[in-house]
Design brief:
Strand content: 15-25%
Helix content: 40-55%
CATH topology: Rossmann fold
CATH architecture: 3-Layer(aba) Sandwich
Radius of gyration: 17 Å
Number of domains: 1
CATH superfamily: NAD(P)-binding Rossmann-like Domain
CATH class: Alpha Beta
Strand order of the largest sheet: 3-2-1-4-5-6-7
Largest sheet: 7 strands, parallel
Number of helices: 8
Shape: globular
Length: 243
Amino acid sequence: MTLTNAVALITGGKRIGQIVARELALRGADVAVAYRQSRAEADETVEDVRSHGRRAVAIQADVSREEDCRALVTQTVAQLGKLDILVNMASVYKSRPFDTLTGQAWDEDLNVNLKAAFVCAQAAAPHMRAGGRIVNFADWLAASGRPAYKGFVAYYVAKAGVKALTEALALELAPHVLVNAIAPGPILPPPDMTTHERDEVAAATPLGRWGGEIEIAKAVIALVETDFITGETIRVDGGRHLK
């Protein structure tokens, strides 16, 4: 796919999402970003895209709600004229001990991390009949079949579901829409992580460092520009899955 004058929707426009939006804009795409509460950060992303000469809008949506997911796609098309690329990046990552995990907390994880990707894709697909790209976000552990950390049952199940969803959608939407997923590893340390913890993660990664936002943006661009890769989940983890 050629990105010039394409329209992309990113469900999450801060941190990594901002860099993805910028890289898409640099290649000629217009961008819609979704936000739930972080309006200021979404506005920063919009201004960043516009500074590169492309159109951009920020749309408020709670992607845990089906109606918001569908409205997000509708508003993107209404404001930017079409939809060519969907990047299902919105995610929630919380430790939830199994013995205290409630049905409500389970639903929160599954709704944001898995159901939203399905609903957004279903809403977007009719707008992509002439060709489109969907990029979902899984996790390096789920992509590797390794739960590894206790306390993340719902998160792990949801991200494993994203990999399965990606494969199923790739078959359903072929040949016009290519569907792939990215499974990030150590890209950005959480804000509350200590320096010691950051160093431990880097040491456990064969490439010896955290990747940074740009590595995810590079992967998104590759999966958008490809014309013959579909149904794949690509780990961007610096080889973390090898240890």
